[in-house]
Specification:
This protein has 5 helices and 8 strands. It is of the alpha/beta class and about 220 residues long. It has one domain: NAD(P)-binding Rossmann-like Domain (Rossmann fold, 3-Layer(aba) Sandwich). The chain has an 8-stranded mixed beta sheet, with helices on both faces. The protein is globular, with a radius of gyration of 16 Å. Pfam families: NAD_binding_10. This is NAD(P)H-binding protein.
Amino acid sequence: MRIVLFGATGYAGGRIAKEALSRGHEVIGVARDVSGLPEADGLSGRQGTMHDPAFVLDVTKGADAVLIATPGRPAADGKKLLDAVPTLLDAARTHGFRLGVVGGAGSLRVAEGGPRVIDTPDFPAEFKLEAGSHAEVLDALRAAPDDVDWFYVSPPAVFGAYAPGERTGTYRVGGDLLLSDEAGNSTIGGDDFALAFVDELDAPAHHRTRFTVAH
């Protein structure tokens, strides 16, 4: 499989690239600065941004899947991931690739019929911009043309470089509800999240929908 990965130098993107490469896939890592990409067989780098429509059309030509592992909040230039969604959808319709997005947990619901995680009183204020921005991306994907095959993977409540965890080789899959274990912990390590993400590429089970994974 030929994979184009935006955000390949980040926490989630780097682990997804490593997992995909371990399965023999070709990965083209895209970032504003590709100097952080490791040297690995099957991995090449392209400097660029998803906010450049001509670049997106060029770099995604011939791709089987295009993956987005970038923050949702505004970057230094003020542009958000949401602003690039129309460009990504147009490229997907032109080239016929599958679009996969590393999403956020804030748009998950705490219980059936309950509020979203982002709308609960204890949700940290410092994460609301990122969570709200990613919720907007999910809404835009849900409104995408029917001929675009996309999936959006929400991590659990605890996910990031501050809690990398250890690879277990296992994970649970859910839908729109936040997953927690019997002790109330909602977490997954970076390697197991990447495992779940690449499993979806290799054996597609979620089309035009969001799902979540956790331990």
